[in-house]
Amino acid sequence: MAAWLSDNSAWVALVCGLIAIAYGLGLAAYILKQPAGNEKMREIAGAIQEGAKAYLNRQYAIIGVVAVVLFLVIGFLGSAVDSTLLGWKAAIGFLIGAVASLGSLSISHVGPSLREDMAWPFGPCSLPTCLALCIGPCPVR
Fold first, then answer.
1. Cα(112)–Cα(96) distance, rounded to whole angstroms?
2. How many domains does the chain have?
3. b/e for 95-116, b at 16 or more Cβ within 10 A?
4. pTM for the full predicted model
């Protein structure tokens, strides 16, 4: 079994990643099907979304500047010190990783903010109740 896993580790990782993506999409669809609540709840959700968007825009701007500086440092430093670990190939690899990281940050922050109003119809939400909403059918209606 260990030899098979060693030989096929990339395929195992790919399948696990696809399963995780499918689960995330299914969970998002389930959450988006839940009722949005009354006018006041939608107003509160809108304010939360506005704040989250402002926060993310600021964070993206700062991270973008840092990524560009690091990209240039890695690229130029490789030429200056004649290193095989640094240079423009490494800089491009860093940039690809930074963009992928930015994409995952977008998904992890924007997705939940789409339905910030979910817990309001249920009143104060205990941890088990809130987790049940995300994992399975809500126990409180």
1. 25
2. 1
3. beebeeeeeeeeeeeeeebebb
4. 0.54
